[in-house]
Amino acid sequence: MRIRLFLASLVAIGIFFNLQMGPAAEPWPSDVEGFVKPQPGEHPRLLFRKADVPALKKKAETPEGKAILQRLRFLLGNNGESFPRNFSPATKGYPGPGKYQNLVIRETGYFTISHAAGYGLLYQLTGEQKYADLGRQSFKKMMEGIRDIDSRYSFIGPNGELRSGSSWAVAALGYDLCYDGWDEDFRKEVAQAFLTVQIEQQKDKKELKSLKKAKEAKDKGLFSSLCPRLVQDAAEILEEMLNE
Known about the structure:
Radius of gyration: 21 Å
Order of helices and strands: HHHHHHHH
Largest sheet: none
Helix content: 40-55%
Shape: globular
Distance between the termini: 57 Å
């Protein structure tokens, strides 16, 4: 009864606001006022733009900003100044011994798939090439198949659609933040790697690029329908980057 009343209330509120607002004054969605579309080869572009960097540098000097960067450097290990020496030994998402038992490393000082993004942020805030170089080292390890400290997450062969999204998202963030500090050949190598990585699945492995032509899953719930669409969008964006 309470659930029905709650849903009825939501419908009533929706109808009320629709009547109050009247017909839309302009098409939706519409462009955000003042938004400047990223130019070909412009990076960073995901969480912030190049024009935002000066303001971010000022925020990094505040007590809160300093605390955040101190924590970032701690998590990167070696104060963010040198590359980790320890790596996960896992070669798949669930190495066992149980059927769905993943390997989780809780010690500090290990490489993670977030390292490239962390070094990339330091590169953006300091402008020092050494951080872009550390980001490059991170991507080389990811392209070799080195997995995260939670073995389900990886650039190469993340475990299923659930973990592939976050694995590739944090990798894309690292690519975006380090982009200006890499040579053209390495940029293309990384972008091409995004288009050929595969999801670790027991019955079926789908290349990211091939999902562009795949039909969305039906009758398998929202998650199964949504993931292929997101992967298709990601592939299209990366192909645009390769053609820039």
